[in-house]
Amino acid sequence: MAALENGELGPLLSPGTLRGLEDECVTDVKAQTRAALLRVLQEDEEHWGSLEDQHSSLAQDVCELLEEHTERAPRISQEFGERMAHCCLGGLAEFLQSFQQRVERFHENPGVREMLPDTYISKTIALVNCGPPLRALAERLARVGPPESEPAREASASALDHVTRLCHRVVADLLFQELQPHFNKLMRRKWLSSPEALDGIVGTLGAQALALRRMQDEPYQALVAELHRRALVEYVRPLLRGRLRCSSARTRSRVAGRLREDAAQLQRLFRRLESQALWLDAVVPHLAEVLQLEDTPSIQVEVGVLVRDYPDIRRKHVAALLDIRGLRNTAARQEILAVARDLELSEEGALSPPRDRAFFADIPVPRPSFCLSFPLFLGRLPLSRLARPSLACLPRPRPPSLVRPRARR
């Protein structure tokens, strides 16, 4: 009896038999989880088109289905735990690709657009909120699984990234459809004396803050950063399109002051929304400085800072600013535009800023200034002697007018 108590029993199954049983188990789990995941996705999808705002348990159901297997397998052996994690991660990647396709189909459905905007946004937020827990699950399974689990992890992350970007774009488009009438009022004569346009923008975005905050933190931060970027792009767009023309230093001062006030109000709004896109705060104040400064060297310095901080700005944008401030002096324009040109040349070959850091690239200038590439004789003096011809950018000629120019509506 003592010998039995102190001895160690050998394995009851041979390694080959044990491996065969594990193979069968992994095969069964793969088939079971695939069917179960498809079933929970179909059940959840049935509620996406409903007009009622129902809570989705899709992510929780998926996690519970897979964790039931991945938590038990390591009790048999570490190797079996790794194999089961790899199996479940493959099933998760396949499920997420199907999830991505169904989300795309949902947003392409014309009937969905008939929902009330608040309902549509709520449904979209629920889809986005599936992402963080499923992404965390994929990361956990990849850590436990063997090295060959990495492609499945990448496929899972790619599907979730696609869903998040799509849903963010849908939410942003809905919000900016509502905001567009307010943006249309910017940079007109009434805008100089009334805060109505900006109050409408701030009020609309602020009213949606509570609904947007239902989004989980990581996708919420990405969405708010994009809303912040897009709001500033839409604010600057009408300015560079030339809705205003400043005919005097007094008008330039008024426009610059209004730009600074609006920039401060937008900054306060996005601080409340917890935007981390602090790089956007300086763009409008920089533009205001370029409009208000009087001496060429100071304008050159400000343009240099603008180009350094926003490397996707181009000479056509700077030329549009000079048109707005009414700068006609050829030599002064050349000196200022040369700063942008030199910085552009110094950055040739550098990578473009990532999509979430693009700003001026999203603002086309419809009436670019033209550049003289040949000597132009003014009397007996060729312009080529005044400055480099490639930088002699002038505004398009306008017919003479006896009426004193002033800010347009």
TrEMBL record:
A GO BP annotation: exocytosis
GO cellular component: exocyst
InterPro entries: EXOC3/Sec6, EXOC3/Sec6_C
Any one Pfam family match given in the protein's UniProt record, by short name: Sec6
Superkingdom assignment: Eukaryota
Family the UniProt entry places it in: Belongs to the SEC6 family.
Protein name: Exocyst complex component 3 like 2
The organism of origin for this protein: Macaca mulatta
Gene that this polypeptide is encoded by: EXOC3L2
